[in-house]
């Protein structure tokens, strides 16, 4: 069975999805989620009655592009004020293994893979491969350490992951590793991500700063223009 990925769109006027991303995700089962942001005091029922038909038509048009590329697709439409909560709920209900945070792209040749402290593996190769089968030149396994004493552990994380990717069939020549020391974990990822075409990473734990600055994936997509695939650790 194909892995399932949720693709959230902001309604009523979503940013267009890149043909490159639609083609790359066509081997997956895709859930196109339309989140219709409601103003305060607007009842969900009345909004659905007023805007539901047009919103669903927008989702259906996007879904049709995935179908044309060969993907298995279903749509979900949510009216509400909390986009992140809507994504979490739909992803859980639909059994999604990952989430796409889309951004415009004309091609993906270099992928950054930020790694957590533990060399987790499981579904990571599947989603790296989704973006890299046809055009990949470089996949960089990246880890941020805070303090020189942790560098050895960081080197172990990236090297172990690299070896497992090679065992999984990835070309050793395309796999690079990078460990940097820095006090700001997210800021280092943002800095390095600007040099790449896409990011594949495990979903980080939610923090209070997400509510102020947006999630790390949102910031990467907004500030660097890189599409991001967030792999669910718990699925």
What does this structure look like?
- The structure is a single chain.
- By secondary structure, the protein is an alpha/beta fold.
- The protein has two domains: 4-96, 3-Layer(aba) Sandwich (Rossmann fold); 110-231, HUPs (Rossmann fold, 3-Layer(aba) Sandwich).
- Helix content is 39%, strand content 25%.
- The chain has helices spanning 19-24, 44-69, 83-93, 124-132, 151-167, 185-193, 209-213, 216-224, and strands at residues 4-11, 29-37, 72-80, 98-101, 110-114, 138-145, 175-181, 198-202, 228-231.
- Residues 207-213 have low confidence and may be disordered.
Task: Summarize this structure as a short list of keywords or feature phrases.
235 residues; Rossmann fold; alpha/beta; 2 domains; 8 helices; single chain; 9-stranded mixed beta sheet
> What is the helical fraction, as a range of percent?
25-40%
Please provide the count of β strands. 9
Given as residue ranges, the uncertain stretches (5+ residues, pLDDT < 50) are 207-213
Any idea what the CATH architecture of the largest domain is?
A: 3-Layer(aba) Sandwich
**Helix- and strand-based class?**
alpha/beta
Mean pLDDT: 87
Q: Please report which band the strand proportion falls in: under 5%, 5-15%, 15-25%, 25-35%, 35-45% or over 45%.
A: 25-35%
Query: How do the helices and strands follow one another from N- to C-terminus?
Result: EHEHEHEEHEHEHEHHE
CATH class of the largest domain: Alpha Beta
Summed up, the domain count is 2
CATH topology of the largest domain: Rossmann fold
Give the strand order, joined by hyphens, for the main sheet.
Answer: 3-2-1-4-9-8-5-6-7
Q: So what's the overall shape? A: globular
What is the CA-CA span between the terminal residues? 14 Å
Whole-number radius of gyration? Answer: 18 Å
Major beta-sheet overview = 9 strands, mixed
For this structure, what is the CATH homologous superfamily of the largest domain? HUPs
Q: Tally the helices.
A: 8
